[in-house]
């Protein structure tokens, strides 16, 4: 695969993922105003089990098929990859049907673990209805994921990117239109509206599948030509292929489930713990704020940082395999620095502007402000866990990422109820932070053990980034106070948007100015920001 084609494919795939995630963030604003906190909690009750069952249904097979197809295409053994794909399709259809049926049937068993009917607004029947509505997506999504993996194995990223965007657009349009019709036209219940919203996952998946089938029809003649050129020198049994596939994919399925597993712990413990301390009446409101609305905001800097940093993982893998210790140390330094450089100021800025940020996206809510301010720092741990897990993959120690996640989940499970009874909603955040912190520390230790990497330089650079971030936060806090005074701030949406926009622009300007001034931008990104220095030089000459 040529470098230009690799870069083009990576760009297309990254663009598709970013567009999908941006759309996935934007839709929550009108969705919030349609269904409110009660609807947000219900949506989370349905979606968390669905995501877990989806990961179990696919079993990491799409990614593994992509790698297998790519490998055997390079050997001109095209038929092997095609036979594996056909077998995989049958397997995905079977696991999709089974997972859909199981989730549908066990919904009445799951719901009582979530709801405390003595205090909560939503009932067990409401939760059952929503879980069953989203379960139908499992009939389509596994098959769609495998077809995407097959195209990626053929170095064709366009089908995956376009199908992701179409899937998201169709899902969001159906979700918002359906909720609007139910709530505003038919004057229906929140439960019906949220059931429509979760069923939108099935409708969106059908849209994405149609795009992939169109690509398949279009590319079929080309695929037939490849089969005609098959060398036929390698033979593998289906059992041998699947054994290798599942062994390879299993660790990454588990790591990919990390966020959903943490949310599942909250789903099964949060309402009951809040009810035990007399806060059952507000527990679902708090749950929706914590596990739905705020979580969407916190993932913004995580997505940005990991998108930049994960591009360095292939170079880390190459340096490790070639035993190039100098290059490996350089790439690890750069990856950790980029993570901290992008995540730390975004997190601190979000915490400083917590009140207007939450009001700008949703509505003015003291609890939303408090939860966002406490939850924002967790983004650093989310980003570090994702990147260190990818690093473990790069140095072929991915099994330890499963160990670290298990340790973190155990800490979360051990502390969650206790901390909630002591600190209410904030306790759940502290338990999440504790779990991820344990996982990240373990991953960092394993990386050090197998690469002989030392963290002194990164620690010093992180302290420096922290100083720049503190300087930025002072400017942002002053700007916020001035704007609140000038606008006579009362939590209105327009006022909040103005404060967030101006605060973010000034904060980013201050941060990037000092980063450039002290050479941090050039150190991390090379010549990408050279235009800033050229402008200053021109002004100095003139």
TrEMBL record:
It is found in: Cell membrane. Keywords: Cell membrane, Membrane, Transmembrane, Transmembrane helix. GO terms for cellular component: plasma membrane. It is a multi-pass membrane protein. InterPro entries: PG_synth_SpoVB (IPR024923), Poly_Biosynth_Transport (IPR050833), Polysacc_synth (IPR002797). It comes from the Bacteria. The chain crosses the membrane at residues 12-35, 47-70, 91-115, 127-147, 168-186, 192-217, 245-265, 297-317, 338-362, 374-395, 402-420, 426-446, 458-482, 494-514. This is Uncharacterized protein. It comes from Parageobacillus caldoxylosilyticus NBRC 107762.
């Amino acid at each position: 695969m040529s470098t230009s084609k690799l870069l083009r494919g990576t760009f297309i795939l990254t663009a598709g993922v970013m567009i999908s995630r941006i759309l996935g963030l934007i839709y929550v604003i009108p969705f919030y105003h349609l269904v409110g906190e009660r609807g947000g909690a219900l949506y989370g009750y349905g979606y968390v089990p669905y995501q877990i069952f989806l990961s179990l249904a696919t079993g990491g097979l799409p990614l593994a098929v992509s790698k297998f197809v790519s490998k055997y295409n390079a050997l001109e053994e095209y038929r092997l990859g095609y036979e594996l794909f056909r077998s995989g399709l049958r397997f995905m259809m079977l696991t999709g049907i089974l997972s859909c049926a199981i989730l549908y049937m066990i919904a009445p068993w799951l719901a009582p673990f979530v709801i405390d009917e003595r205090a909560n607004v939503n009932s067990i029947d409401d939760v059952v209805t929503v879980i069953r509505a989203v379960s139908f997506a499992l009939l389509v999504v596994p098959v769609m994921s495998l077809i995407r993996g097959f195209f990626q194995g053929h170095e064709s990223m366009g089908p995956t990117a376009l199908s992701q965007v179409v899937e998201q657009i169709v899902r969001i349009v159906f979700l918002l239109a359906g909720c609007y019709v139910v709530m505003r036209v038919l004057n229906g219940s929140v439960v019906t509206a949220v059931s429509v919203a979760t069923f939108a996952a099935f409708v969106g998946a059908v849209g994405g599948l149609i795009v992939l089938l169109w690509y398949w029809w279009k590319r079929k003649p080309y695929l037939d030509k490849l089969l005609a050129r098959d060398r036929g020198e390698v033979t593998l049994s289906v059992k041998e292929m699947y054994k290798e596939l599942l062994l390879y994919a299993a660790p990454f399925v588990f790591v990919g489930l990390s966020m959903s597993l943490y949310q599942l712990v909250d789903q099964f413990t949060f309402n009951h713990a809040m009810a035990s301390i007399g806060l059952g009446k507000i527990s679902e409101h708090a749950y929706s704020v914590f596990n739905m609305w705020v979580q969407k905001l916190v993932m913004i800097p995580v997505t940005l940082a990991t998108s930049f940093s994960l591009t360095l993982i292939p170079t880390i893998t190459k340096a490790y395999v070639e035993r190039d210790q100098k290059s490996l140390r350089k790439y690890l330094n750069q990856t950790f620095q980029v993570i901290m450089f992008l995540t730390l100021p975004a997190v601190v800025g979000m915490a400083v502007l917590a009140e207007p940020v939450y009001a700008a996206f949703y509505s003015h809510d003291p609890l939303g402000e408090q939860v966002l301010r406490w939850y924002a720092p967790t983004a650093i741990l989310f980003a570090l866990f994702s990147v260190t897990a990818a690093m473990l993959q790069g140095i072929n120690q991915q099994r330890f990422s499963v160990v670290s996640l298990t340790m973190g989940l155990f800490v979360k499970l051990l502390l969650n109820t206790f901390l909630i009874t002591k600190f209410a909603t904030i306790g759940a955040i502290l338990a999440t932070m504790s779990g991820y912190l344990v996982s990240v520390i373990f991953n960092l230790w394993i990386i050090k053990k197998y690469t002989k990497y030392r963290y002194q330089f990164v620690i010093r650079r992180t302290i420096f980034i922290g100083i720049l971030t503190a300087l930025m936060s002072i400017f942002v806090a002053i700007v916020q106070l001035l704007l609140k005074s000038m606008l006579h701030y009362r939590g209105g949406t327009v006022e909040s948007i103005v404060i967030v926009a101006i605060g973010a622009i000034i904060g980013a300007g201050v941060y990037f100015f000092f980063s450039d001034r002290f050479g941090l931008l050039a150190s991390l990104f090379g010549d990408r920001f050279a235009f800033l220095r050229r402008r200053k030089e021109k002004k100095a000459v003139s």
